[in-house]
Design brief:
Layout (H helix, E strand, L loop, with lengths): L1 E6 L2 E6 L3 E6 L3 E6 L3 E8 L1 E6 L2 E5 L4 E4 L4 E7 L6 E8 L1 H10 L16 E4 L4 H8 L16
Antiparallel strand pairs: 1-2, 2-3, 3-10, 4-9, 5-8, 5-10, 6-7, 6-9, 8-11
Length: 150
Amino acid sequence: MMETDSLKGINTLRYSDIFLAMYFDNGKSCLHRNHSHVLAYMYSGELEIKENEKITKLHKGDCAFIRKDFSVQLIKQGYNGEQFKAIFLMFTGKFLREFYGRLDKEGLPANARRSKASLYKLPSKRPDIVSLFESMTPYFKSGIQPTKEL
């Protein structure tokens, strides 16, 4: 199901609770607690993430993973004359259980451990990450809903 909101210059698109796009020009700050793991990708602008005393800034082409149940302050704003535009992929418990159920558990590394990091910035401009998120740009203003497989 697609939902579209436009409040005070903030535009959002939501698809099935896993796809959230936001774009606007003026800075916005919010205290946020994720109930799902989130992968944030920046198309333009700046996302400042404050966790306790640590500040992480994301810009065009940056991608970060934010663990669920972690409180952060997000400041979303334009940067270098470009509006804030980002996509947030939310990995719900249901989605992760279904994904894990399809994995070949024999192929998983035996020494794999759960990271305790609450925020992990991925290397910038990785071709696999860029191509994934660039493939989503047609959905920003087209009104076309992504397929369930996407």
